[in-house]
Amino acid sequence: MIGLLMVTLQPHAHLEGTLLPRGFFLVLGLIYLAALAMDRLAAHWRVPGAAAVLLLGLALPTELLTRAHPLGPVQVETLHRVSLALLIFYAGLKTDLRRIRGMTAVGLRLGSAGALITLAITGLALLLLAPLMPGGLPPAAAALAVCCLGATDSGALEDLLKALRHAVSGRLSHLLQFEVAVSTLVTLLLFGLVAGVLQVPGHGAHDALQGALAQRLPEQLGAVGLHLLAGAVAGLIIGALAPRLIDALVRSDPQLLLVAVALAFVAYGLGQWLGGGGLVAVFVAGVLLSNGRYRVNRFEQQALGRVMHPFNTAAEVTVLLLLGLLVQPAVLLTVLPLGLLVAIVLPLARLLAVWALLPAARFSWPERLVVAGCGVRAAVPLALMVALSEELPHLRGIPVELAEPLAAQLLALMFVVVLSDLLLQTVVMRRQLEAIAQR
Predict the structure, then answer these.
(1) Rounded to 5 degrees, what are φ and ψ at 21?
(2) What does the angle CA 195 – CA 129 – CA 329 come to, to the nearest 5 degrees?
(3) Distance of alpha carbon 115 from alpha carbon 184, whole angstroms
(4) pLDDT tens, residue by residue, 151-203
(5) DSSP code of 15?
(6) Quick one: which of 84, 96, 252 has its CA closest to 174?
(7) pTM (2 decimals)?
(8) Are 102 and 177 within 8 A, CB to CB?
(9) Rounded Cα–Cα distance for residues 401 and 413 (Å)
(10) Could you tell me if 119 and 146 are in contact, meaning their C-beta atoms sit under 8 angstroms apart?
(11) From residue 287, how far is each of 193, 284, 313 by CA, in Å?
C-alpha cells in the first residue's frame, strides 16, 4: 500500500480538469478499506476498533499524503466540525429516556459532576507531572487539554461492549449510554468556557490566570448560557417538527437516513445562527427524535439509531484517522512517559468519581466497577484536540512561536492517553467481568 501511495500521489500530478492529485480517490478508498480491515482484526483480538484505527492513522505516510494534497486549516476544521456534530447527534439518538426511568438523576450526576471530578483529579496530576513534558507545559494549555478528556464516547463504548461480548447488563448499558450524552455536552460547554476565559486579544500575553478568571469568567459564563439557550431553542424547534416531517416525507429507511442527516445539519445551523449553540442543538434534536412518537412504529428510536449508525461510524473513523495523520511519531516518543502516566491516572480518577456518585444502596460494588471501567474515550476527545490546536495561539502565557510545537506535543500526548486507555480498560474489564461471573 505504501508503494502504491508513492506512485499515485506524486506532487503536481493532478487529475485532468480538477485540483485533486492523481490517485486521490483510489488512495482515499484504500485507506477506509484498511480502516475497516483493522476494525475487523481488532474484533478478532477482542479490543476496541478505535485503537486499531488510531494505529493505522499513525502508520500512514503523513508527509507523502500532505505533500500531494495538503491538509490545511480549512479542511481540518471542516472535517472535525462535521464529524463532531454527527457524533453528538448520534449520542442524542442513543439516549432512550424510556429505558433509564429511575436512573435519570444518577446519569445526570455521573455525566456532569462525575466528569468534573475526573477532570479535576486528572488536571492536578497533569500539572504535577508537567516537568516531564519537553519544554514544560503552560498552565493554560494544561487546563484546556484536560477539558478534552471529559467526554466518554458512544462509538468506543459500543466497541467495548462488543469486545466484552455484551456481558454488561442492559440496565448498566443504558445508564452508560445516557452518561455518554450528558458528559459529551458538559465537556463541550466546559471546553468553550475555559477557552474563552483563557483567551487574550493579542498573541503571547502573559497575564496571570487569576486575572483572567476575575475579568473574563462572568462574560464567558454569559456566553455559555447564551449557547445553551440558543441550542436548546433550536433543538426543541427541530425536535418538535421532526416527527411531522418524518411521518409526511419518509417512506423507506434510505429516506429516513436522508431526513435524519438533513435535520442534524438544520439543527446545527439554526443553533449557530441563534447564538452559537449548534452542537447543543444537534444533541437536543437527537434526544427528541429518539424519544418521539411516530405514526409508523418502525420509525422510532431503533430505526433512527440503525440508519444513523453508518454515519456515526464514518465520522468516528474519520476523526481517528485524522488525529493519527496529524501526530508526529518523533514527538510521540518525547511525550510517551507523560502520556502513560496520565493514562493510568485518568481511569483511577473516574473510579473515585463513580464511587462517590453512585449510591451503594442501588449499585453493588461490582456494578460500580463496571461503570467505572466503561468510561472509554476516543473520537470526541480527539475532535476537541483539533479545536485545541486552533485555540493555543490565543491563550494566555503561550508565545505565538511556541504554539505550533506545543500543539504537536499535546496532540501526541492525547494520542498516547486515548490509545493506552482503550487497550488498558478493555483488558481490565474483561478480567473483571470474568472474576464477577465466577463468584
Answers:
(1) -70, 155
(2) 80
(3) 9
(4) 887 777 877 777 776 667 777 888 888 888 889 888 988 988 888 888 865 44
(5) P
(6) 96
(7) 0.84
(8) no
(9) 20
(10) yes
(11) 24, 5, 19
